[in-house]
Model the fold of this input.
Amino acid sequence: MFLHRVLQMTSLLVIAAMCAAMTGQSVVAQEKRGGTLRDVARLFPDEIPPNAAARRKKAGATSRIFHGAVGVARVKQIIAKPIPRPGGGVLVLADRRMIQRLKKAADLIEQKRYADAATLLQFILDRSEDSFFHPNPEKKTLYRSLKAEAQRLIGEMSADGLRAYELQHGATARAMFADANKEEDVSAVAEVSRRFFFTKAGREAMYHVGSVHFDRARPLAAALCFDQLLQHPATAAKWEPALSLKTALCWSRAGMPKQSQAVLAGLRETVPRDTVQIGGTGVKLFAETNDSIAWLQNVFGTGKVAWKTGETDWAMPRGNAARNGVIVSGDDRHFGGWQSPVSTLYDVTRFPTDSTETENDRQLWQAVRDVKAALELRKQVALPRPQPLLVNGTMYVRTIGTILALDPGDGSKQWETFYDATVGRILRKGEDAVPVPVNSRALQTLVSQRIWGDSTYGTMSSDGQFLYAIVNRPQRQSLQPSRTNSLVAYNISGDRRIGQRAWTLGGPKGGDPLFSNPLAGTFFLGSPLPLGGQLYCLAEVDGEVRLLVIDPIHPETVVWSQPLAGAGLPIHQDLRRRLSGSTVSYADGIMVCPTDAGYVVAVDLTRRSLLWGYQDQPTSNGPGLPIPRPRRPANQTRWLDSAATIATGKVLLTPRTGNDVVCLNLLDGSLAWEKTKQDGLYLAGVVDGKVLLVGTNTVQAMSLKDGSAVWENPVALPTPSGRGYIRNGRLYLPLSTAQMAVVDIATGSLLARTNTPGDIVPGNVIAIGDAILSQGIDRVDVFAFPMDEKNVAKK
Done:
């Protein structure tokens, strides 16, 4: 009998633990929240069975022991459930009852029943997990974060509503903040700022968290916290002018001078007599906004500035964090022409001839020619995927098997990595290699992927200190898809050996237990975004797409991560996602993450939480009924990449699974407009409200406002041969006819169409000084191309 009683009590403990785990709260925490739960039950009486009281009485003392725990059946109704996307990934969608609570809260706010609304909204914010819901049942492509919507509803309440919220939850927030401060628990303080931001204690907690980031030299994280407080001037006044000065200093040290200038300009408008008190001393402010950064550095010093690249550098795909970069004038150097092959394995500074090239070189070059001829025979538009970078005066290119650092002045090689194991195993005989005859299918497959298909391999990024690249894991069978890969950092600055590996993350699980590898088993989906001294990466971990945040100085510890979506097919079975080179875009505190699993997800970096999600395409007409996708015409191409472009509060998407260009509002993910891509290949950028689309035979401009055509007619051109760039209001576009075209963006007129020196076919191009740097399918070229208006007109 005693044993039976012990087993019974053990079962009850397990059930209670399950309840607590599913709600993300301990039993003690549930008891503390008993009032909130009872209030929620009062507002939703239909959720309590009519005979619940009788059942509780019958349960007796045993039930009283666990009176704070939520019943298992009730918890199952609350927990968010992943909703599968046919043929794709999954998002975690909120349970119907949670959505009902949110809608009920909105209705209560309309009725000015603020206390009841605050109860329901805080119940949502107190949950440990977030989930998505459809804010508009008729628009099944848009998802919004349940917690973000709850925060929005609280923030938009009237003054009476906010007073009611403070009265109801301010004491709890103060107690939690006091406990967290006493324990010196920064994560607990951050939890207060996220759950109770619209209380006085919540905003105090946000300021505290920002100050911790500031003291620990995390300028971007600090700036985001402080900037959140600046959005509420009445509250921010208690910390001024220190708050504005610290915010501006953080933006500046995060490498974002425009944001810093905006904060300082706002401070100058509010400060009497243009003088601020700093350390008890009056300091006169700057006279002009353009002088504000110099004034800031003169007063506070440069401090520890996050590694950054120069204004004229091209350090990541598409130029900047918003993926909307333009070439900045300022480098007036003159460059002579030179060329260098990228299909050789050893001495890249020589052009191979019959007397100098090796047998490996001949095999590789022949494979490139064969694949190129096959593409031309099929009349298939295929642009090269490797994109060159220009960082601190050095050009970096990814070849079929190596990474090269070249001097753009004369093409001399500064350093080169060893070629990777996949190339070696195909071309060499050895213990792990299979001898392959010339023109083998394996070699052609490798060449086809590395040059024309694999953006994950072909794109790199840099923060000025390191060069970051994705390295594939060697397989016993050379072309067998791997379940993991690695993110590698190479030294390109500082006292350490230039070109040497600084660190490697990822790789297979089950490595040497003596060496910590927190990201073992990870597949990095694309090159990282260096931002504010940290790296933001998209990666697949155990079948889940995540945003990973890494400190490049201490990469052994992940700073934080955010699950985004389930991946659907395992990565080694999904060729499209493996090769897509998915990378994040950033603007205004929001990180936009294309998962390439059917969804784009936005993350609020200040709160480190989900903001909204967008489904690339509707996928079903009902439960289990997939929408038949229109068959893609044989001559129609996909978008070359799915990176989001951010410009003036809008997000432009070019999903590789779709045929449209989609424009969303950055803050809430709502659809602004959607247009058919027609012959579009890639989005070149946004300039002065004009969205530039490069197609197979045209360049067209669409209005950022509504997607309408801006130019009277598209510019007709031959097929492009790579990605172009924007400079001084012009689009410079490489053409398959061995030419460069120059298009005036304001008028849509063709200013020039000029033959390249030696009739080379340019590839992906960037500019430096008066020259163009081009990485094509088998060579790197630098050739003069005057940029001033007079010379372009002569062309």
In short: The two ends are 99 Å apart (CA to CA). The longest strand covers residues 558-566.
